[in-house]
Amino acid sequence: MKPKVSVIVPIYNVEPYLKQCVDSIRNQTLKDIEIILVDDGSPDRCPEMCDQFAKEDNRIRVIHQENQGVSVARNNGVKAAVGEWLSFCDPDDWMDEAQLSALYAQAEQEAADIAICGCYRINEDSQMIVYNIIDDAVPTCVFCGKSVMELAYECLLPGYLREQGYTNFCINVPWGRIYRAELVRDIEFPKGIHPAEDDIYNYTVFAKAQKVLIVQKCLHYNRTYSGVMGNFQKNCARNAQKAIRIEKDCLERICDRKEFEALADRIETGKLSFVLKSYFFNPSNPDSYGIRKQELRQYLAGNTVYLKYPKNKPYYTLKQKITYYLLRFHVYWPFELQRLLRKRHAVKQGK
After folding, report:
1. pTM for the whole thing?
2. What's the CA gap between 166 and 65, in Å, rounded?
3. 121 has which bridge partners?
4. Hey, where are the domains in the chain?
5. 78: which of 10, 217, 262, 305 lies 20 to 30 Å off by Cα?
6. How far apart are CA 65 and CA 29, in angstroms?
């Protein structure tokens, strides 16, 4: 008999957090589950820990592979899964014990394709920010038919749902939800386009779904900041360029030309914010300030969204507006100062 839910955990270099993550899944009140731990060639003790977990719980299966990235790890987990529903959990996250039982019960009752719960996103200051709660006075919020496409838009266009009256939505991630297995079995996470693999995966899934429901309870805990120094992405600038092209192609397929021209710059907006923080001005980037400035100028030459006057663009945050004004006049030192302060903070914290 098939388990009700298969939970897939891609694992790489998360030894301090892994036990909390796996224990939270093992302790789910929904017991009829399988847990697939995909060791992506982790260099720490994670492989041994996974094997020990499997000895302790026969619901756990372990896949060991050479390091190929989170997308391949998740895809291999999906191939191995046999559950009626699929769930993903990042290895430094953890679940409320009622997460899977609440999502499964509501999804089956509503005949939904996807069920999403509220979540807490925990930042570097240990603050918990609530996401995906639309109206806590009702148990669920249902998106059907055309309204599901609003969720697909949000995956490509950061801030789109905010303009529709929704706040603090976290749609373009794979965790904190269950997907009907037959819906996503043939959909893969794209490779080599970090940080956009989750965006494109969820865009493809939502574009295919007929009914999505939001369970109005915060049942997932997501660490947004496992370490100040730990989020350096060596190839993220090149990957971001590739992701922008793919996401614009996706957007163009669902928009007319006029709408596409009005919305496409939002794709560049999200990627620019990411590469500034994760590459050009990341504390772990070993290159000199001069080299990074030169590379940033080259990157900006192909991504001119920062030159557009942002005054009447409601989806730009104040921080983004300030960022674009500084970039417009090639003022980079405030970003470098912030980088040095982050590095100093990391050293003090021993990270």
Report:
1. 0.84
2. 40
3. 129, 222
4. 5-223, 236-349
5. 217
6. 30
Alpha-carbon torsion 228, 232, 236, 237, what sign?
A: positive
Four-point Cα dihedral 176, 271, 275, 336, nearest 10: -110
| 293 and 349 Cβ atoms separated by less than 8 Å | no
The amino acid sitting at 85 is: W
Phi-psi region of 194 (alpha: psi -120 to 50; beta: other; left: phi over 0): beta
Residue 92: phi and psi, rounded to 5, are -105, 10
Over its length of 351 residues, how does the chain's per-residue pLDDT go in tens digits?
Answer: 899 999 999 999 999 999 999 999 999 999 999 999 999 999 999 999 999 999 999 999 999 999 999 999 999 999 999 999 999 999 999 999 999 999 999 999 999 999 999 999 887 777 788 887 776 667 788 889 878 888 887 887 766 776 666 667 778 899 999 999 999 999 999 987 876 889 899 999 998 999 999 998 999 999 886 543 345 667 777 888 888 888 888 888 777 777 777 677 777 777 787 888 888 888 888 889 899 888 888 888 877 666 665 555 656 677 878 888 888 888 999 999 988 888 887 677 655
CA-CA distance, 308 to 206, in Å (whole number)?
30
187 CB contacts (<8 Å, ≥6 apart)?
201, 204, 205, 208
Q: Do residues 113 and 179 touch, judged by C-beta distance below 8 A?
A: yes
- Interatomic CA distance for residues 262 and 240, integer angstroms: 21
Q: Which value, in Å, is the radius of gyration of the alpha carbons in the chain?
A: 20
- For domain 5-223, which architecture applies? Alpha-Beta Complex (3.90)
Q: Are the beta carbons of 247 and 254 closer than 8 angstroms?
A: no
**Six-digit token string for 205:** 């899934």
Alpha-carbon distance 5 to 198, whole Å? 20
* Helices and strands per DSSP (H, E), number in the chain: 14, 10
**Closest residue by Cα to residue 17 from 49, 58, 64, 43:** 49
